[in-house]
Amino acid sequence: MEAIAGNKLYHIVVDNDVACSLLLKHNSFRYRVNLIPNNKIEAKEVKKEIVDYVRNVTRGKAKFGLELIKFHIHVEATMKYIFGKVIVCEDTETAKKLAFDPYVKMKTVTLDGDIYDPNGVLEGGYSQEIYGVLKKVKEI
Predict the structure, then answer these.
(1) Which of 12, 53, 71, 108 allows an S-S link to 95, with CB 3.0 to 4.6 Å?
(2) Where do the domains of the chain lie?
(3) Whole-angstrom distance, CA of residue 113 vs CA of residue 88
(4) From residue 107, how far is each of 27, 82, 85, 118, 139 by CA, in Å?
(5) What is the DSSP string of 13-40?
(6) Sign of CA dihedral 49, 54, 59, 62
């Protein structure tokens, strides 16, 4: 999930745009931050036909990012923005197939953290040693 979220993992989710404005106006941070106003953030929904297609074609080898996480309904818009248009695949073959399928054309990530972007960009080299922020947070 860290590979999917990327640096959005470090964005600060704020209840609304007014609170975001106030935080920035009053220099509430000593460093540059990215704020996500939960009431204004928009995420495009995956069409039901594509969801059904992915489920049929992969026979359980792929799930949408939102299906794999639990979150409070209050932050649903933000979770959709971050995890809504990414498919997590069991293996490289499934990830490549979906990412470059003309009907799907969505970002995919393998369980090892390799990312296939339909625009042609590939990311790899995911390592638990490097990406362990969520694990550390859970431990705390």
Answers:
(1) 108
(2) 42-139
(3) 9
(4) 35, 12, 7, 6, 29
(5) EES-HHHHHHHHHTT--SS---EEETTT
(6) negative
Q: Are 54 and 99 in contact (CB under 8 A)?
A: no
The answer to whether 98 and 62 are in contact (CB under 8 A) is yes
Percent of the chain residues past pLDDT 90, beyond the cut: 71
Alpha carbon distance 124, 2 (integer Å): 13
Residue with tokens 């818009």: 77
- Tell me the C-alpha distance between 86 and 107, whole Å: 5
Which class is 42-139 in CATH?
alpha beta
CA distance readout (Å), 87 to 44, 65, 134: 14, 6, 19
